[in-house]
Write a structure and sequence with these properties.
The structure holds 2 protein chains of 2 kinds. Chain A is an alpha+beta fold. In chain A, about 20% of the residues lie in helices and about 40% in strands. Chain A has helices spanning about 5-10, 20-30, 85-95, 130-150, 215-235, 255-265, 265-270, 330-340, 370-375, 425-430, and strands spanning about 35-50, 55-70, 75-80, 115, 155-170, 175-195, 195-205, 240-250, 290-295, 315-320, 325, 345, 355, 360-365, 380-390, 400-410, 415-425, 435, 440-445, 450, 455-465, 465-475. In chain A, strands 1, 2, 3, 4, 5, 6 and 7 form a 7-stranded mixed beta sheet that branches. In chain A, strands 9, 10, 11, 14, 19, 20 and 21 form a 7-stranded mixed beta sheet that branches. Chain A has a 5-stranded mixed barrel with strand order 8-15-16-17-22. In chain A, helix 2 runs parallel beside helix 3. Chain A is globular, with a radius of gyration of 24 Å. Mean pLDDT of chain A is about 95; it is low at about 1-5. A 6-stranded antiparallel beta sheet of chain B has the order 3-2-1-4-5-6. A 5-stranded mixed barrel of chain B has the order 7-12-13-14-17. In chain B, helix 5 (about 130-145) packs parallel to helix 6. Chain B is globular, with a radius of gyration of 24 Å. Classes of the chains: A alpha+beta, B alpha+beta. The interface between A and B is large, with 86 and 81 residues. Strand 3 (about 75-80) of chain A pairs parallel with strand 2 (about 45-60) of chain B.
């Protein structure tokens, strides 16, 4: 299945052994603690870029370090170091322990107990074993295909990047969990010129898969979608401004869930009472057609996790079932606060960051309607297909997302292409305003990254076609 | 590896080793830093983070084949294996002669460390007790200000970093600087909505930060402004862009001004040098030499000497941001690829007077999402703000977007306030634009 050694063994090459772990956890808990952990991480990332017809840049990153966390109640002390020598790790452990003033319940002597984790992203070959010479002809071919697709294509840029990440989590209660997390991402960007009009288009795909992820269909889609998007933008205008019905296409429309409800489900905001959903557990927040999940178990998805970053098993968490709010996304701190199990949502950008409850792959389950039926139900509105980014204010409930490509809906039909418009709404109102849910769920294959408190983590999102009764469209006419 | 001399020695050793392995040109940058963050909420420290960190960035050119690389694993054997890989990874690449290092005469320190004044000696004397006290003061002041507070947090952070850079063309430089930050945020109970806002200040000198009282007052003012917010009707309004929010609108220029966008024909400013892109009132300067400036630096990413550059003067586009690589590709002299401090010079009339002249306007105090298209210049952003009538607050606004284009928006600049925001690398006063498209209800 995999040629990669297990991650516990992986860190022995950096001098990490049970003795170092035991001493570091003992130092971390020396002033008392309710919870404490060490998060070792080693990442080796490579990317290759093509511009102006030449594969002419390569980038390699090696990142190695350990983060030490000490938890007392809901207080967190955190320190990290890139130097894995015993002296340096002990210094970090003492620093992190300063949060505790001989408080907390104290911890038993560390007896390692290895957590067996599933494998949602098995690989035949790790990315470090793939020579640059394998990647170079692939990306050169993508460029060639892009130029061949249309004479208006003037510039092509291609980038292919991948990473092998090994993590090792050791907790004061003895839990030891290891994970190997591969990641690959490829993007094609083109500039198309038609007379005086210039436009750009891009498409990217990302996965925890190996080289076999790039099958012929995916490679062709990567190229043809980027060219098609640039050409479409050449002839697209701005939609009208104001409130109107909006139909969200299947796939990356999941950004609406991510912003309108996903962040509000992260239990840290609810624990502090700062989420708009803080008092909505077991209450109806959307029509019965709506079921929303956050899933760590999708095969090879960018947002999938075998184990979270504090050693909790991961799962498919139902956030909203048939319109009723069922669960938040928990890390160990919020799980303890609410008296429930962690949902395996404790994540961090790297060893430099403390854990926060985060999304993994957020999507809406299928509903009863055919997508054509949904579009046909709109007299005058906006069809949103390609998204660039989104944002939310957790407490105020306001969220927004930027639509790069869409179409007008007139008399139940898709008509002229539109582009570059921001949509804004009030989360709870928008969930209530969901009128129809399609039967065509698609998990977007793009490389989304979610930002929170200065930490970026890879996520996935998906959606069937969905109709929202009214959203505010920032059009120009 | 504690002193700058040791960092410099390491950088020289890296350059020499890469050359020994066959590289023709090498850039090495070594940095180390320390930082501490303390966050308080509900009467206790919620999170305290502390770290000392280090890293190496190496770019090599081997027969004109380029790779750039970074690592945090500086153990000697690991470092040597890494450098071998940096050089050997160029083997499968194609030549790119434009990557060559700049002429040594262009490189160097453009401004003295004394003038930049970035290294507050107070940083070394800062104690854990002093940080804890400052965070506690801010939190206590915030929590006690109103009785509808759901949550109030305070943040105190500081750090210092040292960076050395060595180029195989003979350049070597040592730079160091400290920074301090403090702020707070608050969430209020308003039934269905829980309005939130915060204020965050950064400075090079501890003594330049506002007092805990001033921070708490500003946080309360900002969150109170969010109460009762709703959308106004869609239409065209004068836009008053608050000084602290100006960076988002000015920032739409950054992409199209870059050498990479010009080279890829993805810039709406291509061919516009010397042409009018804004009203007479619009002037924008990139100034890396501002004493204690948060974006100040002695040289840029190519090691080119820092100097103030006027990007837009009286509405006329004077310069792009061209780094060495794209300068060669475009046949243009390099200016500087990166952004330092962006300065809009203040006007003469008090901002309050300018606002009083406007019967009805939208004051934009912040943004929520949105984006811009550098190829066409079109932008669309979600906004937060206030409805103003003759400078008086007439309502709180949410769920609205502002839409426009780079080619048009700066032509609509009709007044410039006298209140530059100094807590960021974008130093702009309040800006007033006529007839801007907002969408709401």
């Amino acid at each position: 299945m995999t040629s990669t050694p297990p991650a516990t063994a992986w860190f022995t090459q950096f001098g990490v052994d049970d003795d170092l772990i035991r001493k570091a956890l003992s130092a971390a808990t020396s002033r008392g603690a309710d919870d404490a952990d060490l998060f070792f991480e080693h990442t080796e990332a490579t990317s290759v870029g093509l511009s102006d017809g030449a594969v002419n840049s390569a980038h390699t990153t090696i990142d190695l370090g350990v983060g030490v966390r000490v938890v007392v109640g809901d207080q967190v002390g955190y320190a990290y170091t890139e130097d894995l020598s015993l002296e340096s790790v002990l210094r970090a452990a003492h620093t992190a322990s300063a949060i505790a003033h001989n408080s907390g319940k104290g911890q038993p002597v560390f007896v390692p107990s290895r957590l067996v984790v599933p494998d949602f992203y098995p690989v035949d070959r790790s990315w470090s074993d793939v020579e640059l010479s394998v990647r170079v002809p692939m990306i050169r071919d993508w460029e060639k295909r892009a130029f061949e697709q249309d004479p208006r294509v003037r510039k092509v840029r291609v980038n292919m990047g991948d990473a092998d990440k090994h993590v090792l989590l050791a907790r004061a209660d003895g839990t030891v969990a290891a994970d190997y997390r591969p990641m690959t991402r490829a993007s094609v960007s083109v500039t198309a010129v038609d007379g005086d009009t210039k436009e750009s288009g891009s498409y990217n795909v990302a996965s925890r898969g190996d080289l076999s992820y790039y099958d012929e269909a995916r490679q062709q889609r990567l190229v043809s979608m980027s060219v098609e998007r640039a050409l479409r933008a050449l002839n697209a205008g701005s939609p009208p401004a104001g409130e109107m019905p909006v139909v969200l296409a299947a796939g990356s429309s999941g950004i609406l869930l991510h912003e309108a409800i996903g962040h509000g489900m992260e239990a840290d905001f609810n624990r502090k009472g700062t989420s708009i959903y803080a008092d909505k557990l077991n209450k109806r927040i959307a029509p019965a057609e709506v079921t929303i999940v956050d899933d760590a178990t999708l095969p090879a998805a960018r947002g999938s996790l075998n184990v979270d970053d504090e050693g909790s098993p991961t799962e498919k968490t139902v956030l909203v079932r048939d319109g009723v709010l069922e669960s938040y996304l928990h890390d160990r701190i919020s799980a303890r606060h609410y008296g429930v199990d962690s949902t395996g949502s404790g994540r961090r950008e790297s060893f430099r960051h403390p854990v926060l409850p985060r999304m993994r792959a957020t999507y809406m389950e299928n509903g009863p309607h055919a997508p054509e039926e949904i579009i046909a139900s709109v007299d005058k509105g906006l069809y949103c297909e390609v998204f660039a980014n989104g944002a939310v204010q957790i407490g105020a409930g306001d969220f927004s997302f930027y639509v790069r490509h869409g179409r007008l809906i007139e008399n139940g039909k898709l008509t002229e292409p539109v582009k570059d418009v921001n949509l804004i709404g009030f989360g709870p109102k928008v969930l209530e305003a969901i009128e129809m849910v399609g039967n065509d769920l698609e998990i977007d294959e793009g490389g989304w990254t979610c930002g929170k408190d200065g930490q970026g983590v890879p996520v996935s999102q998906g959606m069937p076609t969905v109709k929202v009764g009214s959203l505010s469209v920032g059009g120009g006419r | 590896m504690d002193t700058p001399e040791k960092l410099l020695e390491l950088a020289h050793r890296v350059v020499a080793r890469c050359q020994e392995l066959g590289a023709d040109e090498v850039t090495a940058m070594v940095s180390r830093g320390s930082h501490v963050t303390v966050q308080r909420r509900a009467g206790q420290v919620e999170q305290a983070t502390e770290a000392t960190t280090r890293g190496l960035v190496v770019a090599v050119l081997n027969d004109d084949r380029y790779s750039s690389n970074s690592t945090s694993d500086l153990r000697p054997a690991a470092l040597d294996a890494f450098l071998q890989r940096c050089v050997s990874s160029t083997e499968f690449l194609e030549a790119d002669e434009y990557r060559r290092l700049p002429d040594a005469e262009l490189c160097g320190r453009g401004v003295s460390a004394q003038q930049l004044d970035q290294d507050d000696p107070a940083w070394g004397e800062r104690t854990a007790e002093a940080r804890a006290l400052q965070a506690e003061q801010i939190e206590t002041l915030l929590a006690g200000r109103r009785d509808d507070v759901i949550s109030a947090s305070s943040y105190v952070a500081d750090g210092r970093s040292e960076t050395v850079q060595v180029l195989s063309n003979g350049f070597e430089g040592v730079d160091a600087g400290a920074w301090f930050a403090a702020g707070g945020d608050m969430t209020l109970d308003e039934g269905d909505r829980r309005p939130e806002s915060g204020a965050w200040y950064g400075a090079r000198y501890l003594s330049d930060l506002p007092s805990p009282e001033a921070i708490a007052e500003e946080v309360e003012k900002r969150v109170t402004e969010r109460l009762g917010s709703q959308a106004a009707p869609s239409g065209s309004y004068p836009m008053v862009l608050a000084n602290r929010a100006a960076g988002r609108i000015l920032g739409v220029l950054a992409g199209p001004m870059s050498g990479s966008a010009l080279h890829d024909h993805r810039s709406c400013l291509e061919g516009k040098l010397g042409e009018r892109i804004g009203s007479d009132l619009f002037t924008l300067v990139d100034d890396p030499t501002i004493p204690r400036g948060l974006g100040s630096r002695p040289w840029d990413g190519d090691a080119l000497r820092a100097a103030p550059r006027t990007l837009v003067e009286g509405g006329i586009l004077k310069q792009y941001n061209i780094n060495v690589y794209y300068g060669r590709k475009l046949g243009m002299a390099p200016t500087s690829g990166g952004r330092s401090n962006w300065v809009v010079p203040p006007g003469d009339r008090p901002t309050a007077e300018l606002l009083a002249d406007l019967p009805k306007a939208i004051l934009v105090t912040g943004f929520l999402g949105g984006n811009s298209n550098g190829s066409t210049g079109d932008f669309s952003f979600g906004i937060r703000g206030l409805l103003l009538e003759h400078g008086e607050v007439a309502g709180s606004l949410s769920e609205m977007n502002v839409t426009g284009s780079i080619g048009d928006i700066f032509q609509r600049l009709v007044a410039v306030g006298d209140d530059p925001w100094k807590w960021s690398s974008v130093r702009s006063p309040t800006l007033i634009f006529d007839d801007v498209q907002f969408s709401g209800t």
